[in-house]
């Protein structure tokens, strides 16, 4: 089996670390060799956060270079644009349509690019855009954007939904399991 590479990108506090933990648990339980690496940046100040997840028969490094990612899962649309150079030809970007203004936009030094997703699509990038924030709120918490996006991703990986639900049960704090299962189902379109 070829190694599959996923990048989870977002802004500090959006739950990318929980998403990578969930993926790591799921893929390990499926018998894959899994490597996970986290790059925090200025995450505590709303900065960019990147997590690498690579799995396959034998994986030697968690790091994903330019043109190597099969999937980029983005919790915020400008973060999707920031990392598309890492996407391999034929790869897929799954992104939340939410806009979180970076510091240069907040201070007035820059303007948020309005047509980020349209520009990616025009460049030939395969983009699946989802209003994950609305679905997360429907599930019971705006913080469940990460699990909504895992639901979207689950439709593209050859692992049955029941295995994902089992991974949610073993990864998420018990009091949040049902809400996260609902967020996952909404992401899957169920």
Descriptors for this entry?
Pyruvate-ferredoxin Oxidoreductase, domain 3, single chain, 190 residues, alpha/beta, six-stranded mixed sheet
Explain what the structure shows.
The mean pLDDT is 91. The protein has eight helices and six strands; from the N terminus they run E-H-E-E-E-H-E-H-H-E-H-H-H-H. It has a six-stranded mixed sheet, with helices on both faces. The two termini are 30 Å apart. It has one domain: Pyruvate-ferredoxin oxidoreductase, PFOR, domain III (Pyruvate-ferredoxin Oxidoreductase, domain 3). It is 38% helix and 24% strand. It has 190 residues and is α/β, with parallel strands linked by helices.
Could you outline the blueprint of secondary structure elements for this entry?
Blueprint: E1 4-11, H1 16-29, E2 33-39, E3 48-56, E4 69-74, H2 77-82, E5 87-96, H3 103-106, H4 116-122, E6 126-130, H5 132-139, H6 145-154, H7 161-171, H8 177-188
Parallel strand pairs: 1-4, 4-5, 5-6
Antiparallel strand pairs: 1-3, 2-3
* CATH class (first level) name: Alpha Beta
Give the count of helical stretches. 8
N-to-C CA distance: 30 Å
Helix content: 25-40%
The secondary-structure class comes to alpha/beta
Average the pLDDT over all residues and give the rounded result. Answer: 91
CATH architecture: 3-Layer(aba) Sandwich
What topology, given as strand order, has the largest sheet? 2-3-1-4-5-6
CA gyration radius, whole angstroms = 16 Å
How many strands? Answer: 6
Question: What is the CATH topology?
Answer: Pyruvate-ferredoxin Oxidoreductase, domain 3
């Amino acid at each position: 089996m070829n190694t599959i590479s996923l990048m989870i990108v977002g802004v500090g506090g959006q739950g990318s670390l929980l998403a990578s933990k969930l993926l790591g648990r799921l893929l390990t339980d499926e018998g894959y060799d899994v490597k996970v690496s986290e790059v925090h940046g200025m995450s505590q100040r709303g900065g960019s956060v990147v997590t690498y997840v690579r799995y396959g028969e034998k994986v030697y490094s968690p790091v994903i270079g330019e043109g190597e990612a099969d999937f980029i899962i983005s919790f915020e649309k400008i973060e999707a644009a920031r990392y598309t150079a890492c996407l391999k030809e034929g790869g897929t970007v799954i992104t939340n349509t939410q806009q979180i203004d970076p510091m240069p936009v907040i201070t007035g030094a820059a303007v948020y690019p309005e047509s980020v997703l349209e520009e990616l699509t025009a460049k030939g990038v395969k983009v699946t855009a989802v209003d994950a924030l609305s679905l997360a709120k429907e599930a019971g918490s705006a913080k469940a954007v990460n699990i909504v996006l895992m639901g979207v991703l689950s439709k593209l990986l050859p692992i049955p939904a029941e295995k994902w639900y089992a991974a949610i049960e073993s990864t998420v704090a018990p009091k949040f399991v049902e809400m996260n299962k609902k967020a996952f189902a909404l992401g899957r379109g169920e």
